[in-house]
Amino acid sequence: MQPSEIIEILNRPISQELLARDLTRLAYVAKDGTPRNVPIAFAWNGSEIVMCTSKNAPKLASLRENPAVALTIDTEVHPPRILLIRGRAELDYVDGIPDEYLQPTSSYKMTPEQRVEWEAEVRSLYHDGMVRIVVTPTWAKLIDFKTTLPSAVEELARQREERQRA
Fold it and tell me: How far is CA 56 from CA 35, 66, 95, in A?
């Protein structure tokens, strides 16, 4: 997939709405060769998906060995809206807490007091730093079930049209 195609998909209004959400599902291959899919908070900075985790997270060894990942960001309404992204994870070990981890999210509502308590807990728990998992998209697909469908459903629709014309 060409970079211009990826940018066009990611700049669509529905994609932008999805990229403003809080959680993605990160799929990767674990060290034992089996698939993993974990929900994880993320931030979109306009060109990369940034997720943050602890320095002792088991997924880090897997991502060092095989950095290929797939991400799913979706909605819980009908029809679903789904943004699929593939890329390679780059690991960025940082001292302190990354800004992306501390930025307020859209769906996790906290009172100002809760926010202060949460941030104090985060700073105490991750006192020796975190790891930023940075993914630059190398492939993207938006599925909105109005203008775009999963490829298998697109094929079935094409076959139905051919049968109806025959």
Answer: 19, 17, 14
Number of Cβ within 10 Å of residue 163's Cβ equals 8
> How many other C-beta atoms are found inside a 10 Å radius of the C-beta of residue 141?
16
43-44 vs 49-54, strand pairing mode: antiparallel
| 78 close to 64: Cβ distance less than 8 angstroms | no
**SS3 label, residue 156:** helix
State the distance between the two ends of the chain, measured CA to CA, in whole angstroms.
34
CA–CA separation, 141 and 17 (whole Å): 14
81-136 pLDDT, tens digit each:
999 999 999 999 999 999 889 886 666 678 889 888 988 999 999 989 999 999 99
- The β-bridge relationship of strands 49-54 and 23-29 is unpaired
Secondary structure E strands in the chain: 23-29, 35-41, 43-44, 49-54, 68-74, 82-94, 130-143
